[in-house]
């Protein structure tokens, strides 16, 4: 498959996943580019599960970036979360609540193990258990357990009742 086709097909999903994984859209954009650079420099031996390969590489890059540096600072995070233009602003108190919830969810995600966070975020992006298992180098049977455990921990850390959702 051509690089342009792969990029068009997977770029947005990779960006969304990495932005949630790292909590930093700027870093996520850099990691997407680095993922596709790795595809050009060192392509996988097989193209059978290209989506899984791309997300595995992206996850490893994000994990490495997380280990080697702190996020770019509160100012960058705040700027990324600010509304894009004045006409899109909601009620200021609702905006504050939304940002507070986002920070609480981000903090709760950061408390999960690498495997739990990755499994949960990949599942939220629509990955099948088989694809998640490949990305995490685990069995498909353990993926359901990882996702369930991650959801339980998130709900507990966020103080949610059984069945309560994060977003209305």
SSE blueprint:
Layout: H1 3-22, H2 25-41, H3 50-68, H4 74-81, H5 92-111, H6 114-124, H7 129-136, H8 140-158
N- to C-terminal separation? Answer: 40 Å
Radius of gyration: 17 Å
Give the name of the CATH architecture of the largest domain: Orthogonal Bundle
Biggest sheet statistics? none
Describe what you observe in this structure.
This protein is mainly α and 168 residues long. The protein folds into two domains: 1-77, Rna Polymerase Sigma Factor, Chain: A (Orthogonal Bundle); 83-168, Arc Repressor Mutant, subunit A. It is built from eight helices and no strands. The protein has helices spanning 3-22, 25-41, 50-68, 74-81, 92-111, 114-124, 129-136, 140-158. Helix 1 crosses helix 3 (50-68), helix 6 crosses helix 8 (140-158) and helix 7 crosses helix 8. The chain is globular. It starts with a helix and ends in a 10-residue tail after the last helix. Residues 70-75 have low confidence and may be disordered.
